[in-house]
Amino acid sequence: MSEPAATLLMVEDDPEISRLVGEFMRREGFEMEIAGDGHAMEAVLQRARPDLIILDLMLPGEDGLSICRRLRATDNIPILMLSAKSDEIDRVVGLEMGADDYLAKPFGPRELLARVRALLRRARGTPPQPAGRRYAFDVFLVELDARSIERSGPDAGPVQLTSAEFDLLACFLQRPRRVLTRDQILDWTRGRSAEPFDRTVDMLISRLRRKLDAASPGSNLITTVRNGGYLFTAQIKQIP
């Protein structure tokens, strides 16, 4: 039995862009919900849970960055941010607020489709692989197939990661005690949808560091290697 069609929510105040994207994505087999601003988005979320949100940066009223930050405080739904601003600082801020990917306007529909499919694959997990799908390190237990991370001890409980942050953690766990370059991380976590944009990795590293350190203060699990990349320093144990 095939999977049900994924539902996309597009938050975009330009009705022509919304119409064109909506028509194209429906032809590609997606269900579409359209909202012109943050208020309309909340109305949609009250009656439906989309699989991915396409969020414009420049919106009337509450802007896309504020909406992204608010969504991230309570939900790990994949967010693809759109903006007519292509400056690096805008991408960095969007990623820092919790967006999983960033696409500058104007964009081609095929490029948008590729980004959406890549984010959905990431959110749904990858096909099972032999051995090493459960890991323990520091105070954490990670199950890759379930895409879950739990903290043990007195404050035991789940650690909330976005799909991009979880993929980054999985990348480190499956390549222990190795210095990974930005290009390697991009290739292993995003594949052909990756762009040569180093700060994407930097922002994801920063976000993952903060969350791990908040759950295990002072652990310093990810080290920056000058002119090299990043090293995951924890002692990792694979669990059968």
Describe this structure in words.
The protein has 240 residues and is α/β, with parallel strands linked by helices. 40% of the residues lie in helices and 21% in strands. Strands 2-1-3-4-5 form a five-stranded parallel β-sheet, sandwiched between helices. Helix 4 runs parallel beside helix 8, helix 6 crosses helix 8 and helix 7 packs across helix 8. The longest helix has 18 residues. It is globular. About 3% of the residues have low confidence.
List the helices and strands and how they pair.
Blueprint lengths: L6 E5 L3 H13 L3 E5 L2 H10 L4 E5 L7 H9 L6 E5 L4 H9 L4 E4 L4 H16 L9 E4 L2 E4 L4 E4 L5 E2 L4 H11 L5 E2 L1 H9 L7 H18 L6 E4 L3 E4 L3 E3 L2
Parallel strand pairs: 1-2, 1-3, 3-4, 4-5
Antiparallel strand pairs: 6-7, 6-13, 7-8, 8-9, 10-12, 11-12
- Integer-rounded radius of gyration: 18 Å
Tell how many strands the DSSP assignment holds: 13
Beta-strand residue fraction: 15-25%
H/E element order? EHEHEHEHEHEEEEHEHHEEE
What's the total helix number? Answer: 8
Measure the end-to-end span. Answer: 30 Å
Dominant shape: globular
Structural class: alpha/beta
The residue-averaged pLDDT reads 85
Helicity level: 25-40%
Biggest pleated-sheet summary: 5 strands, parallel
Counting copies of identical and different chains, the oligomeric state is single chain
| Strand order of the biggest β-sheet | 2-1-3-4-5
List low-pLDDT spans: 126-132
